[in-house]
Amino acid sequence: MHNIENQDNTLSNLLRTIQETNSLKQDYIAPTSELQLRTPVWSDDNSGNKSEIVMEGAGGVPTKILKVNDLCFDQIAQKNGFDTRTAKRLQQQYPVEFDNIMNAIWQKEPSKRMIRTYDIVGSPNYGTARAFLSDRFKTFDNTDLLEACVPQLMESEASWKIVTAAITEKKMYIKLKSELLKGAGANVNDIMAHGIGISNSETGAGSINVHEICWTLICNNGMQNQKQTRKAHITSAREGDSWNILTDETKQADNHSLKLQLRDIVGSYSSRESFDENLEKFRMAAQDVIPAEVDKTDVVENLGKVLSLSKKETSSVLNGLLDTIGQAGYENDQPLNRATMVNAVTAVAHKAEADDVDFWQRLGGQVLDLKKSDWNRVAVAA
């Protein structure tokens, strides 16, 4: 069995965080008609008004006051038909009116919701509302994903090693690279390694996901290709009625089945064949050379248009390109090519927030798979 931990104890720190938060988790299923939203007009951290959910006590159960975090607030707003920017403005500038309209919707358009929370240590009547979800949400939590995947990763002949791991309000992310599955990439001294990523959202911000990564070792850029498997937390409308009446035992059996599927999927993503296919794509991409007379800024601007990037995102790609061509393997003014642009895009992930890393790594995969007609639009002078 292979040790997948790295020298920074990234996995150990992740497991410690998960263990600490697991002890604080509480889930509630409640009709919105029994909830109240309120927004005090002060904040103890000077960051603006913060809304709370009040769950009135009954039958000996005390009233629970849940401070709403940013993700949960967005979900409440969207469920009630508000875009998040408008809801945030009303919360900050018109808190009384905002609470009135939100509570009116909860009363007049009642629905059952799952509220996922963390208790506050030492204050059992207070907590943090971290998600506001459908009562059809299938709880497959981070510990479930780790139980399914980590043993398979440790037993794999690919000899996986943790690269990065993070937990945010939205998701848990783990990315690994193989110490054995390596090969020459598109440029001089450009050694690449096979990789795998797993992610999950306990709070309705995404599916359970297993995907392949191709790592460029000289800069540790990771590119996600199109090979990935997603498993949704939300049941379909057709399944919804039956899911609500299932016993805990049946739901646990459903989760066990999903764990077995994920175990096998992780195993299938460890093959040499799939990695070799990615290496060949990079080599082919290196043959799509950008003419020397085309300015780097024009190339990036063109790429931004093809990928529908914002001005800020396009500027980040330009910075990523400058970082990329300053590395070994690009000496003597080697011409830019499509493989270079893949690394320019994935380089942005190093400076991105944890919840944005996957976006840039997937975007790198899109560049690698660009149609010839789209690439021709990139590699022309303005």
Ordered list of secondary-structure elements with their pairings:
Elements: H1 10-22, E1 25-31, E2 35-38, E3 52-55, E4 64-68, H2 70-79, H3 84-93, H4 95-108, E5 112-120, E6 123-134, H5 142-155, E7 160-167, E8 172-184, E9 191-200, E10 208-216, E11 221-231, H6 237-245, H7 248-268, H8 272-285, H9 296-306, H10 311-325, H11 338-347, H12 357-368, H13 372-378
Parallel strand pairs: 4-6
Antiparallel strand pairs: 1-5, 2-3, 3-4, 5-6, 7-8, 8-9, 9-10, 10-11
Helix pairs in contact: 3-4, 5-7, 9-10, 9-13, 10-11, 11-12
Describe the structure.
This protein is of the alpha+beta class and about 375 residues long. The protein has 3 domains: about 10-15 and about 140-280, no CATH class; about 20-135, no CATH class; about 285-380, no CATH class. Helices cover about 40% and strands about 25% of the residues. It contains 13 helices and 11 strands. A hairpin with a 6-residue loop joins strand 8 (about 170-185) and strand 9 (about 190-200). The termini are far apart.
Task: Please tag this protein with its features.
382 residues, globular, five-stranded antiparallel β-sheet, 3 domains, six-stranded mixed β-sheet
Structural class: alpha+beta
Question: What amount of the residues lies in strands?
Answer: 15-25%
Helix content: 40-55%
The biggest beta sheet reads:
6 strands, mixed
The end-to-end span amounts to: 55 Å
- Stretches with pLDDT under 50, minimum 5 residues: none
Strand order of the largest sheet: 1-5-6-4-3-2
- The geometry reads as globular
Say how many strands there are: 11
Give me the Rg, rounded.
24 Å
Number of domains: 3
Number of helices: 13
